[in-house]
Design goal:
The protein is α+β, with helices and mostly antiparallel strands and 67 residues long. The chain is built from three helices and three strands, in the order αββαβα.
């Protein structure tokens, strides 16, 4: 579900897609372990989202929040 919520805050930036990381660290670390996002432990306010993470986030968002 957290990945679906990240879809709401994703934005494209060179060299890839980023999302705001204002969520619980435990959940962000789990997404990192599953290789959906890069390491969230940085001073940046956003995190880089992998291509697989972006695809999965969109699919989950549409499934749970409709489209």
């Amino acid at each position: 579900m957290m990945l679906a919520l990240l879809w709401l805050t994703m934005f494209d930036e060179v060299p890839g897609t980023r999302a705001w990381k204002g969520y619980d660290w435990e959940h962000m670390n789990r997404l990192h372990e599953k290789e959906y996002i890069d390491n969230p432990r940085s001073k940046d306010k956003s995190v880089m989202v992998t291509e697989e993470g972006k695809k999965r986030a969109e699919k989950l968002f549409n499934k749970y929040f409709g489209k």
